[in-house]
Amino acid sequence: QLQLVESGGGLVQPGGSLRLSCAASDLDYYAIAWFRQAPGKEREGVSCISSSGGRINYADSVKGRFTASRDNAKSTVYLQMNSLKPEDTAVYYCAADRACTVVAGSLNWPGEYDYWGQGTQVTVSS
């Protein structure tokens, strides 16, 4: 089955930037979503990019700050995170499925995704 490998998490000050990567063989066949989960909170959908990269959806909380992209030649999906806020602190996961699930503007459907990375910690703090 699909093995997703994440990298790029870490500690950053408010207003700073990080870029997360998610890589796997044959990733070009899949839509890739990013989710995050903070302690005591439910898992939240952050973004989803179609297999071709032609359609990208974002949660309202990150629009204008986060950018998802993909390089199918490298079988890699990226999440560029700018203007980071303390409330962005969470474990971030990439997830793969045949297509993105977006219902009534919500990306919060983790059960729809068949494959998951191990998660990477993002901490935004002074």
Q: How would you characterize the overall build of this protein?
A:
With 126 residues, the chain is an all-beta fold. Helices cover 0% and strands 44% of the residues. It has no helices and 11 strands. Strands 2, 4, 5, 6, 9, 10 and 11 form a 7-stranded mixed β-sheet that branches. Strands 1-3-8-7 form a 4-stranded antiparallel β-sheet, with no helix packed on it. The radius of gyration is 13 Å and the shape is globular. It starts with a strand and ends with a strand. The model has no long low-confidence stretch (mean pLDDT 96).
Count the E strands.
11
Element-by-element helix/strand order: EEEEEEEEEEE
Total count of helical runs of at least 4 residues? 0
Distance between the termini: 40 Å
Strand content is 35-45%
SS-derived structural category: mainly beta
Radius of gyration (Å): 13 Å
> Approximately how much helix is present in the residues?
under 10%
Shape: globular
Mean pLDDT: 96
Main sheet attributes: strand count, strand direction, barrel closure: 7 strands, mixed
Give the low-confidence spans.
Answer: none
Summarize the structure.
With 126 residues, the chain is mainly beta. Helices cover 0% and strands 44% of the residues.
Task: Please supply descriptive tags for the structure shown above.
single chain; 126 residues; mainly beta; 7-stranded mixed sheet; 4-stranded antiparallel sheet; 11 strands
Task: Present the secondary structure layout.
Layout: E1 5-7, E2 10-12, E3 18-23, E4 31-37, E5 44-49, E6 56-58, E7 66-71, E8 76-81, E9 90-97, E10 115-116, E11 120-124
Parallel strand pairs: 2-11
Antiparallel strand pairs: 1-3, 3-8, 4-5, 4-9, 5-6, 7-8, 9-10, 9-11
